[in-house]
């Protein structure tokens, strides 16, 4: 996801997606023209408070997501970063926490508390600051209430899943919460189409989020009983560091694979992909362009763990080693094909 890092707090990178700047401009204009915001003010105060309110929304979203992240870390989760984007925010986790219901409720609770703080400022400061703090208080209460709707991918859907999982199991609970999320999205889309186009955009986001979460959990359910050694490609074509870019290009044309481990004296010392050699002279040695920081797993690594490593690292393949020796390679394509086969097999049963 294309984003810019703003700062790091509690060992968590806080980033903003480029779409955030677009939505801040849209919100600033919306607050400027809204009869319920600062219409009674004259410029430049009206413009200043409109911009502050738009920025305040995403400050509120940041507090909401930070509360999720800090609580997740408290219960064993590994939160890598928070990304603020056009529809709000998202905490990116390498490791899911325990007590999902508690972690999910932390966000709305933080929004309620922040709303109360803003309300306290509202009753204690003069106009027009009081108008600004009242608006921020209302927005945070709305944010909390909206996120508590029991439908995926909202916090309420995750709380519902944590409750249902005790009776139906994690997989079935996710399907129920996701289907509720899709139903909510369809209802919002129909209503938004006629009365509020912004609701239509939110509905699309909810539907996509519910659908993706359902897909992810389905994949994890199918792969849960497998290890990397069960799905990896064992006949691995490797290259040596003294080969040239031209040699590897010809190999890619022949084998139709876009990444190869680099092996020297039986040890994996790097990996070279099409991205590494684009624009390089054909006579350049592979050791000069290869990626030396190789992400490796073992044949005994659970497939769920390998899947999370692929998702968090953004790489397309994992090198499989056993006692330091190359024994296989696992690609995203391998996983996709395995899931397709398992889905057909499960349906046939």
Q: How many beta-strand runs?
A: 9
Strand content: 15-25%
Number of helices: 13
Largest sheet: 4 strands, mixed
Q: Into which percent range does the helicity of residues fall? A: 55-70%
- Coarse structural class: alpha/beta
Strand order in the sheet with the most strands: 1-2-3-4
Mean pLDDT across residues: 83
Dominant shape? elongated
SSE pattern: EEHHEEHHHHHHHEEHHEHEEH
The end-to-end span amounts to 38 Å
Which spans of ≥5 residues are poorly predicted at pLDDT below 50?
A: none
Integer-rounded radius of gyration:
25 Å
Mind sketching the topology for me?
Blueprint: E1 3-9, E2 12-17, H1 19-33, H2 45-74, E3 78-85, E4 88-95, H3 100-122, H4 129-147, H5 155-168, H6 170-195, H7 197-223, H8 228-231, H9 245-255, E5 259-264, E6 267-273, H10 274-277, H11 286-289, E7 296-297, H12 303-313, E8 317-322, E9 325-331, H13 332-348
Parallel strand pairs: 2-3, 7-8
Antiparallel strand pairs: 1-2, 3-4, 5-6, 8-9
Q: What does this entry look like structurally?
A:
The protein has 349 residues and is an alpha/beta fold. Helix content is 59%, strand content 16%. The chain has a 4-stranded mixed sheet, sandwiched between helices. It has a 3-stranded mixed sheet with strand order 7-8-9. Strands 5-6 form a two-stranded antiparallel sheet. Helix 1 (19-33) packs across helix 2 (45-74) and helix 5 (155-168) runs antiparallel to helix 6 (170-195). The protein starts with a strand and ends with a helix. The model has no long low-confidence stretch (mean pLDDT 83).
